[in-house]
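Re: the 233-residue chain
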Amino acid sequence: MEKNNLRYERKFFIQHFTKHDVESEIKLHPAVFFEIYCERRVNNIYLDSFDMGNYFDNVIGLEKRTKVRIRWYGDLLGDIDSPVLELKAKNGLVCKKTSFSLPGIRLDADFSNETLRDILKKSELSDRLKLDLGCLDIALLNTYRRRYYLSADKKYRLTLDSNLEFYGMASFKNRFLDRSIDHISVVLEVKYDKDYDAGANRITSCFPFRMTKSSKYITGVERLNLMKTYSHA
């Protein structure tokens, strides 16, 4: 089933406060945030063109940019029953995310670009979308823990991500040894519908953190590339 929404996203990439510190700030916030789901593991496979076009569009800060990923929850490896294809289009701070259900997959050492093509072929995606996605390759795997909060007036949502892990993805035979682990940094994100933008500063200004540009896809690619640079130095 296809789903889409239009919203603002504002992020804080936090390195000098612990996860516990950030959780305390959320609990003390005057908007009265309460947790709405149990903490769970979020996993993503990012797709990109052979020349990493989506990556570079985000790095140089194009106003209009796109990310393509396959998302699921729970265990990172093994059988994945309900993966979801997400197309995330951004225009400045405004984000539109469109989601499509995919057939079940298995993430193991045999997962490859050929596996990806087969998944897309078996899906119920439109022929046009299959054609557009057919030129993309697997680019990055990441996983993290996420907590979810909602303000008392139900206008603003927070997600808090921790235990960030990034894995390089090869076109075939993935052993998941090329990885970068960050269990110190946390990412706090404020999400809300366009209609509530006027009150968003009241939410963000109450946090003692600096708002930043933050993309787990960009962070993962850069961390892994840096590791490769040092390993060959």
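The helical segments are 19-28, 53-59, 113-122, 127-133, 200-204, 216-231.
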